Amino acid sequence: MTRFTDLIDGYRRFRETDWPAERARWTELAEGQSPKVMVIACSDSRVEPATIFDARPGEMFVVRNVAALAPPFETTPGYHGVSAALEFAVTQLEVEEIVVMGHGLCGGCAAALTGAFDDAPHGGGYFISEWVELLREAREAVRARFPEPGPDAMLEMEWAAVRASLANLRTFPWVAERERDGRLTLHGAHFSIAEGRLYVLDEAEENFRPA
């Protein structure tokens, strides 16, 4: 089990090996960032985008949250953390692609599908339940097809979450505009933890295919 002291040990190894080897890269990054891709991924500790995509520092703008969800466009007051990251990536960094990457064995999708935290109190799952309400419509469609929440239902829920996030991204005017004129491309993906395999969504055929 990794603890903070282990993280500090890892940092020291980074300073001794990776930092000197990539010194020119870090000097360049100190002047600013210009990633071409934004990745919306899950907070799950098993699904690290930089590891999965073998990416170097500065190559991806990443936002992570429970179930890798993108909310719909809203203008109501509040703390819109994912929307702020999206706005920064698209309008300021001018990324050219956005990848929504769900994954297998996703606890957030399981919570949405089973309703495990419905009516939970604060500190007992309240915020989890509120967040995965973004998947309400997707959940009902999956439940209609799979009355029992088994492995097939879970996989379908995880796929549906990726599709729902892509649909929500397209409600942001500056995302939709850039996608229409070709400045921005959206992708859906699903990483199977058990297989170590990435599946990419073919939106035309509505299927996930191995990358």
Automatic annotation (TrEMBL):
It is an enzyme of class 4 (lyase). Keywords: Lyase, Metal-binding, Zinc. Its EC number is 4.2.1.1. Gene3D superfamilies: Carbonic anhydrase. This is Carbonic anhydrase. Belongs to the beta-class carbonic anhydrase family. GO terms for biological process: carbon utilization. Zn(2+) binds at C42, D44, H103, C106. Its cofactor is Zn(2+). PANTHER family: CARBONIC ANHYDRASE. Pfam families: Pro_CA (PF00484). It catalyses: hydrogencarbonate + H(+) = CO2 + H2O. Reversible hydration of carbon dioxide. InterPro entries: Beta_CA_cladeB, Carbonic_anhydrase, Carbonic_anhydrase_CS, Carbonic_anhydrase_sf.
